Each structure stands twice: as structure tokens, then as C-alpha cells.
Amino acid sequence: MATAKEADIKTVGANRFDFDSTVDVSTLRSLYLGPAATSASVPGAPKKFGAESTYDKESNSIQYSTVAHFPPVRLLPNADRKRILVTGGAGFVGSHLVDRLMLLGHEVTVLDNFFTGSRTTVSHWVGHPNFGLVRHDVVEPFMIEVDQIYHLACPASPPHYQYNPVKTVKTSFMGTLNMLGLAKRTKARFLITSTSEVYGDPEEHPQREEYWGHVNCIGPRACYDEGKRVAETLTYGYMRQDNVEVRVARIFNTFGPRMNPYDGRVVSNFIIQALKGEDMTVYGDGKQTRSFQYIHDLVDGLILLMNGPETRPVNIGSSDEFTIIDFAEAVRDIVEEVQKEEGNSLAKRVGIIHKDMPVDDPQRRRAETTRAKETLKWAPQWTVRQGIYEMTKYYSAQIRSGAL
Ligand SMILES: O=c1ccn([C@@H]2O[C@H](COP(=O)(O)OP(=O)(O)O[C@H]3OC[C@@H](O)[C@H](O)[C@H]3O)[C@@H](O)[C@H]2O)c(=O)[nH]1
Question: Where do the NAD(P)-binding domain residues begin and end (predicted)?
């Protein structure tokens, strides 16, 4: 069996609907893993991109330096170069989408309030003539001339979105209303990132797009679940009433580098705990299930959806389902493999402990992706193992550099 590190995926993206979105994985890696962790070779370009930070332990200070060279971006004819707005573009998913859109040669403006996003995720593009970064909260209107809007802005981790539930609902409703208004005025195509959480604690398994869901509208998760449901309602309202061109992605659990290590989601929690030699925390008995997709597969799906003809909601996720307890063991094995390779093996295996199950935690979740396969010709290409391996290398490098 191939090991995780033997990932030989060379390119991501696809050439469909007259739109070539292929990008070398090595170029993407140079943006999040850095040159030391990748064999990236971008012809004619410097090996290191973006701002650099150096931590000094003695003075407990951090020194930043900016770099004025950027990875080469595709040179598109004017007619093909789009002006693209990405709300939440400094978040985990947003920053990877921005990397792709920039490398493909588009003009990208990122809107972010930096509640859960961070400037560092896109700092390697600051100063590029095709790139703009605006601190702005989508609950307020925003004026810009654009051709496409990827509307991602909203906290996505359960502890984050439950921290200020009123703000979460407000972001989902007002933010989507404002961005749809912008799409209506500019005639931009509008894509919203909805979520598998619209299915709630599902009574149907796996979850097809036709399933209406099972959501507790007054529970602690409702601010996000119902927020995204009403955001979808608004989106189709604007489509029917105002002919706005809309796309709706229902994203299932996604992981990858640049995920905030302390945002409380299971993949980041497990990898960080295992790397630091702490017990891994399984909530409840760990029999609940999730299917996890790697970030690059999700970004492929978003770009295909935006540029394809499908206007109905489309699930984008993995159908490789794990119980959380099995997932903890798989993560522990991969982290140990990385530690061994890096000569950092721990004296003993980390333990797995159980904590209380969060209220309304969905018991089963697996993406049914026939629609994405048929209408977008999309299929995930990264295994969970390949993704966890790369994400572990990323966090491990961050711990070594003092950033974590
Ligand atoms: O340390 C942990 C964290 C989480 N978990 C469990 O692992 C499972 C997954 O939890 P996560 O917090 O990562 O994500 P959830 O599936 O609950 O929610 C996610 O759903 C889809 C996306 O839209 C969102 O990113 C997020 O809300 C849950 O059953 C949770 O209880 C643990 O067992 N231990």
C-alpha cells in the first residue's frame, strides 16, 4: 500500500467548461509549506515567496520582512481575466481559493474582518498588482465592480460560530444579502459556500442534495445551520426574482494547512495534540462519523461550480466515512510516521481520552456526490491519509519555527 508521503499528485484543478484551472501542486506547496518542505521549482522565480517572520525567543519578539517577488501568475488575455471578489478570503478555505485564482491570472480582491481569518494566510500576495486586501465586515454593504463573487465569509468552526451566535446569524443573513445586492447591481456571478450542516443531524444517510435536513432551530448550532439555510433561501430568492446568476456549494468537513490550529475542529485538534504529546480528545464515545476532504479537492469543486452551468446546490465533500475514534487512531499513526521521519519521536504513544459530546452533534455524515460527479465531472483525488500527512508536516514546521 502506498504510504501517505508518496503523494504523487502533480496538478490540481481541471480543464472544463472552456476554463483551464490547472495549477502545479508544487507551486501551491511553496506558498504554504515553504521551500524547505517542498521540492518546488518554479522556473525563473525565486524559491521563497511572501513575508517572512523570525521569532526571537530571548526578547519574545517577532520580526517581519516583506518580499517583493511573487510566484509567476498566468498571463490571461483581457477578455478572460476576471475581477473576482472573495469574501472571507483570509480564512482557511478562502486563502487557498485566492492562491488558485491568483495563479490562474485573475484580479482578486479579498474582503475579511479578520475575526477568524488572518492576514498571514494571504500575506504572500500583498503588493501584487492583481491583488487587493480590504478589512471589511460583510454585514455592511460594500461597493466594487466585479465579475464573480465567491461569498465565503462566516466563522465555520463550531466553537467559533457559537461564541457569538447573534453575530453568526447576522453574518449569514446580512452578509449574504449585501453580497447578493452587489451581484445584482454588477451582474456578477455569485457563489455561496453553504454547508453540510444544512442537513443537521441527518435522518437520511448519506446526504443527497434533495434531502431537506433535520435541524434543531433553537439549539446551539442553529446560528450556523439556520444562518446558512436562510442564506441559501436568499440566494435562490435573488435568482428567481432578479435573475442573479447563482451557485451553491454545500461543503462537507474539510481540512488542510492554514487551518487555525486552535479553532477547535477535530482534524486540527487531533494533529496538534498528537504532535505535542497531549492526549487526543474524542467527544462522546467516538462512534459519530464524518467524511473528510482535503482542501485542494474542495477548491477544485468551487472553481468548477463557479464556471460550470449547475445552479442547484451541489455537495462537495468526501464519501470516505470514518468514526471519530477510528479517525483519531489513523491520525495518531500518521503523526508518529512524520515524527519518526523528522527524528522527533515521542517516548510514548499519546493517549485517547473521551470528553462530553457537544449538544446536537450530528451522529452521521457522509457526502453523496453524484451531482458533483455528473454535472461538474468533479471527483476528489486526495486520500485522507495524504492530506493528514501534509497537514502534519505543516504544523510540525510551524511548531519548530516557534509560530505555534
Ligand atoms: O477535539 C475534538 C473535536 C471534535 N470532535 C468531534 O469530531 C466531529 C467533527 O467535529 P468538527 O468540530 O471538526 O466539525 P463538525 O462536523 O461538528 O462541524 C463542521 O461541519 C461542517 C462545516 O460546515 C463546519 O466546518 C463545521 O461546522 C464531531 O463529532 C465532534 O464532536 C472530537 O471528537 N474531538
Answer: 85-391
